[in-house]
Amino acid sequence: MKDNKTLFISKLNIGNSGVELNYVDEDDKDFFVQQGSLDGACAVYSFFMLLMIQGIIRRSDIGIYMKVKRNTFVGKLVHHFFNDNGMHWEGNYFSDLKKGFEKASTSRAVITIDSLNLYKKIVDYLNRDLPVLVSIQFKGKDAGAHAIVVIGYELDKKGELTKLFCLDPGGKKPNYAYQNNVLLIKEYPTAKYRDYDILSMSQIYINEIMIVE
After folding, report:
1. Which residues of the chain have pLDDT under 70?
2. For 61, what's the count of Cα atoms within 13 Å in the CB-facing half-sphere?
């Protein structure tokens, strides 16, 4: 009988200050960014974490409080997402992130967005060592949506997906684990909101994903 299978992307390590990148210089190891309590820019924070994990931007490029020059690639990104468009990105889809990135980018990175057959595609991307930006919808009339970075999964003995391990900008930086949030998959298999977000203690469903490679 097979045991449960757990996988995390290979770019992460647990250092003295918590989760960090394992393939960059010391100044760039810390990539986690926490969302402010008064802003709705979770997708942007998660997107920047994804870009740092992928090595497309570096922490040292961003600087303290994201103070960077507009004439650089990173500066254009920061000013587009935070300064020019404000901190409130509720209701903006991943297509907005893609357009903003491509407008500012001098990178050859390719962004892929998908909304179909998502469980399988998330596992496939993680097997390719790619972190996945995930949009989740909370249960409730006015509950809203949230964006997190998936960096690992667990499969049960039958090979079925049971957990997604995530870095959530709405939570604190994890000190002793790679993740600070877990999505329990198909906890409510017959419901629209079939999954469960442990950090928010909410039923959710995954409605969109994005990768950068």
Report:
1. 1, 36-40, 63-75, 77-92, 106
2. 19
In order of 71, 93, 213, the CA distances from 129 in angstroms are 32, 24, 10
CATH class given for the domain over 5-9+112-212: alpha beta
* Residue 52 CB contacts under 8 Å (≥ 6 apart), including other chains: 21, 28, 31, 58, 59
In this structure, the strands spanning 161-167 and 145-155 are antiparallel
Tokens representing 206 are 């995954």
Distance CA 34, CA 140 (A): 25
Tokens of 133: 């930006």
Q: What is the pLDDT of residue 128?
A: 98
Residue-wise pLDDT for 63-72, tens only, equals: 544 555 566 6
User: Burial of 32 by CB count in 10 Å (0-12 exposed, 13-18 middle, 19+ buried)?
Assistant: buried
Strands 132-138, 18-21: pairing kind: unpaired
The pLDDT, as a whole number, for residue 2 is 73
pTM, two decimal places = 0.90
CB 206 within 8 A of CB 134: yes
Distance of CA 94 to the CA centre of its chain: 12
Domain ranges in the chain? 5-9+112-212, 15-108
